[in-house]
Specification:
Largest sheet: 7 strands, mixed
Strand content: 5-15%
Distance between the termini: 62 Å
CATH class of one domain: Alpha Beta
Helix content: 40-55%
Number of strands: 15
CATH architecture of one domain: 3-Layer(aba) Sandwich
Structural class: alpha/beta
């Protein structure tokens, strides 16, 4: 049979709802799609990547690009927040390009594969788990006009329209992808890149699908790449950037350093290799509390010398009861210990939190809000999520299983809507809905706070400067406005049990908008002043 070059397109849809992660300046290369695209190229096919989040493309623009490309294969990587739009796009593309094979992949599609295939005829297949190994075999099957029966790791629709699940690939059949980020990889700036250094996670947080995603292939916990291989990639990035500037590297692992001897030793070797090769990098990584407190001072010093400057740290809550609900492996005291350790080494901390969950009561919510506000007031700590943050629930997580058992989640809707669950406490539900309605107004503050903290960490701004003083005062004011309004709203929700309005909402929004403007102006003046100095 003569080999036919196929024209393929991979799509990362945009989240049309405004969330704390939806700011264009933070949108990065989708590394998973880049891995899959590289596998397709190596197999001899043509492939385009549409990153609708990075390029701020709405559904209509994505459809126009796909139709204009007249592709043989379209692959989408939806999240729980973009799955509905993805399926809408697929339906239109199916109508306009009936010959095109449409496939979904990624975490959410993997765990919702059967529902997607049963309910949406526009989808030809779902690739489960790590797709870079299965995708080439799937394309070969499409090229042969085969229905996919011999392709491991996929759900497909046979000629009779029945959904068939093939065996999944074993981890030994899925090597780490051969791909280096290109100089055009954009994150926060033109000198910012993203990499993966491991797969899986030792933790089993109730809201996270990573453990089950890896378990599909037999991955029991965590698998790290070789330290030298990682630093080779970082060195390639620095040489490709060729700007002479410090290069920003975001390590997108769920947990860069597991709380194990193996994990710490790998981190030590990565740091030593970066230092010995004299690579000038600014590193952002995700760490857990257990991992942080397991590191000795020597390792943290090495990591700082190698360029670690910013850490994403999932604090999530202050109440141990909430941490148990989330199945976090750390306690409140361990979180505080880890936080103080990071600050001791002058690392900028991006602390995430999830305030609302289905089993919460009002006292728990207030106590967690108080704890989160206190840690965010510490110098060097920044919130990555707004005070209106609410748990996303989707298949593939243990919290979903628990809610399903308790009859608190809509099984038929939850794969399309991560908020399709009920709260045990009606006053919490009312408060959660009210705060979520304000997210579009509150979220820009948290985008700005994180941008400012990133800037401080990267450029080592003098904390005693006039601009820093003004910014610090305005940041504190902005956080206080949000916190005080939240506590006031919680009181109203608790006393009225959902029967009264929130009277001060418009006033709160007006004051918040003015404060965000003041903070943005102060930040712009700081950037202008610093640019003149360098």
């Amino acid at each position: 049979m003569v080999f036919r070059v196929m024209n393929c397109c991979l799509v990362y849809p945009r989240n049309k709802s405004i969330t704390s992660y939806d700011k264009p300046a933070w949108r990065a290369e989708h590394l998973g799609l880049s891995y899959v695209a590289e596998a397709i190229r190596r197999a001899g096919h043509n492939v385009d990547v549409i990153n609708a989040a990075a390029d701020d493309l709405d559904a209509d623009k994505v459809v126009r690009k796909l139709v204009a490309g007249n592709y043989d294969f379209c692959g989408f990587s939806p999240t729980c927040l973009t799955i509905r739009d993805t399926l809408d796009i697929a339906e239109i593309v199916r109508h306009k390009l009936p010959h095109t094979h449409i496939s979904l992949g990624g975490h959410h599609a993997t765990h919702c594969a059967l529902k997607i295939m049963q309910n949406h005829n526009s989808i030809n297949s779902v690739v489960r788990g790590y797709a870079d190994a299965s995708i080439v075999k799937l394309l070969s099957a499409i090229e042969r006009k085969d229905d996919g029966c011999r392709v491991k790791g996929i759900y497909y629709r046979n000629q009779d329209g029945c959904t068939i699940q093939n065996d999944d690939l074993l981890l030994s059949e899925i090597p780490f992808p051969k791909y280096y980020p290109k100089p055009s990889s954009i994150c926060r700036s033109e000198h910012s890149y993203v990499i993966h250094s491991s797969r899986g996670c030792y933790n089993h947080c109730s809201f996270c699908s990573t453990p089950r995603f890896g378990a599909i292939h037999g991955l029991q916990s965590w698998l790290g790449r070789n330290a030298e291989d990682i630093v080779d990639e970082i060195e390639f990035i620095c040489e490709s950037d060729n700007s002479g500037r410090v290069v920003e590297i975001s390590i997108l692992d769920d947990n860069f350093i597991p709380a194990t001897r193996e994990g710490r030793e790998r981190a030590r070797q990565i740091a030593k290799n970066i230092i010995s090769r004299n690579l000038k990098v600014d590193i952002w990584a995700m760490l857990s509390a257990r991992a942080i407190v397991s590191c000795d001072d020597e390792l943290l010093t090495l990591l700082y010398q190698a360029g670690l400057r910013r850490v994403l740290f999932g604090v999530e809550a202050g109440e141990n009861e909430t941490l148990i609900t989330y199945r976090k492996p750390s306690t409140r005291d361990e979180n505080l210990q880890a936080l103080n350790l990071l600050l001791k080494f002058s690392l900028s901390v991006h602390a995430t939190s999830i305030l609302f969950h289905p089993y919460a009561n009002m006292e728990e919510i207030r106590n967690n809000a108080d704890f989160i506000e206190k840690i965010h007031s510490l110098p060097g700590v920044c919130s990555y999520t707004p005070i209106c943050s609410r748990l996303l629930v989707f298949p593939g997580t243990s919290i979903y299983d628990r809610l399903l058992q308790d009859g608190m989640v809509d099984e038929g809707e939850c794969y399309l809507n991560p908020y399709a669950y009920t709260f045990k406490d009606h006053s919490v539900a009312w408060l959660a809905d009210h705060m979520r309605s304000l997210e579009a107004k509150i979220a820009p503050l948290y985008w700005l706070l994180t941008d400012i903290n990133n800037y401080f960490a990267i450029y080592n701004i003098d904390p005693n400067s006039h601009y820093m003083h003004r910014i610090s005062i305005t940041m504190k004011k902005a956080r206080s406005i949000c916190y005080e309004y939240f506590i006031e709203s919680a009181g109203i929700a608790y006393k009225s049990d959902g029967r009264s309005a929130f009277p001060r909402t418009e006033q709160f929004i007006d004051i918040l908008m003015d404060t965000i403007t003041d903070l943005s102006n102060a930040y712009s003046e700081l950037q202008l002043s610093y640019t003149k100095q360098i």
